[in-house]
Amino acid sequence: MKRLLSFLLCLFISFLSMAGGIKFTASSTRNPVQVGENFQVDFAIENGSVRQFINPNFAPFQVIQGPIQGTRINVGMNGATQTLTLSYILRATKEGRFTIPPATAVTNAGNIESNSFVVQVNKAAPSQPSAGSNNNAATNGADLSKNVFIRITADKNSVYEGEQVTVTYKVYTNVAIVGSQVTKVPSFNGCWNQEYKIPEGVSGQEVINGTTYNVLIFKRVALFPQHAGTLVLDPAEIKILARVKSKHKRQSIIDQMFGNNPMFNDPFFNDPMFNDPFFNGYEDIPYVINSGSLKINVKPLPPNKPADFNGAVGRFTITAKADKTKLSTDDAITYKVQISGTGNLPTFEAPTFIPGEDFETYDPKTLDAWEKEAYPISGSKSFEYVIIPNESGKIDIDGAHFSYFDLDKQAYVTLKTALLSLDIAEGKHSNSVKINGQSREELKLSRSDVKPLLNAAWQEDWKRVIKPFWGSFLFYLLMSIPIILALLLFIFRKNGAAILQRFGNNKEKQAIHTARKYLKLAQDSMKSNNTEAFYQSLERCMWTYFAQKWSMNTQQQNRSELSNLLNAHHVGENLHEQINSLLNECEMALYAPGAVSVDFAQKIKAATDLIVHLENDLKQ
User: Fold this and answer.
1) Which domains does the chain have, with CATH numbers?
2) Res. 202: pLDDT tops 50
3) Whole-number mean pLDDT of the chain?
4) HEC string of 203-218?
């Protein structure tokens, strides 16, 4: 009998559900509000299938977020109702009484309009919320600030310049999150950074003040501060849609119709079907969570740095190996120096290696082999030097030396590789090969021109053939040197500006040439639809252009230094903002994929226009 009655009740619920009419209402979760305050406007459509929603003009309110779609199903004595809610978070911008016009919904039953309503905006109160406070709209009774929040943590609160600090952004929640959107990504100005990959899903649980929370790691990044002082880590911000029990939850239909009648204390009525959100009433609430900022103390490195110190901080070892030790003057040697260990491997430069004047040397090739996912970052970094001997014989070369700040010893350490002994034979083509316009034989003579001075016999020969100094060629040469120098000084004063201008133009041409190269790489990534490679090339295009144009080293390539340079060169505020906007977009695309829209062609055009406009600005 009880089973049959339950079945009939379900049929009755379905009938009541179909009997309801469409209702379209608009309301504000807070009224009145203050200037600068956020509040939420809800457009609720009950028992209607919406094909299109047309929002009203919200002026003079500023739209912060929306529309955010949520659904709620309630069952009561009047039947089952399904409500679709479209929510907007608005910000009051000025004092007064303002009417929000009706919204329009296109449904299967035709077009319907919501009601309009008035929002009273009062003058802002003197007190302002503290930094990092979460100024969200009302949450329909659900105190979400205690149920979902972000925390930013660092594994160290005090580090040296160049020392790794790992920062983690965690989301804590004990409510269901049915949607999310990253709205603010930290920029980490003043730091070289490497982001770790984060596995999807819940990473564990933590108990805070007796409450258990599911924990999701939103972002984890290795930072290497480039300057001493206080490092302020920017907050992260996420817009979420939280599913919570409705504050206005109706009593279940069983309780409403039959109260606490013992007849209905059957286990059947404890079936999970009757605990479904369809019967209990849930709603989706839009909410904004903000991590707040975090400060880290960055200590300067101790004074008395070694002369060859190039910013390496950590724990390292050094090895070196030549591909050959027996060769001729027709050959080249590849000398590979490898730095291994834990520390700021991505940022420091090549160790010092000076073979001497008997060799032609070239800038080293850098090979990175450090583990991006290691904690802390570790691995190796190699530098390949190509050297060409100019003289034959057995020659010993000092090895490479590398200085770094050791975090364990709290002191500078200098590492050296072993002496490199070479056995060099005379090449078959030594005299015909030209180096800097000289044959090897000529180069030998020019480099040994001081040796005969040590030979007494040669000095005696010189005495016999030397002519009187007065009236000699050397005499007239020395007398003409002041005249030549004066003439050169006069020419430089007259044309020095043009010479410097040509030098500056060469730097500009090099910067523009490199920018074009990276734009070409971005264009290739656009053709293959590789978003990450596209934004990496676009970001390098901008930073490399600035670095070559203004001789910025690796440590200077940060937003603060760039801003100072732009201001020093009197770059217009509008152009300054456009440069920051493009760099922000590149960072957001790389650190929060999907947070920005991708229009490859427009971004390439934007970067090109910025460089062109900057060049024009600087020439004025």
Assistant:
1) 2-128+249-280 (2.60.40.10), 144-242+291-298 (2.60.40), 304-430 (2.60.40), 491-619 (1.20.120)
2) yes
3) 76
4) CEEEEECCEEEEEEEE
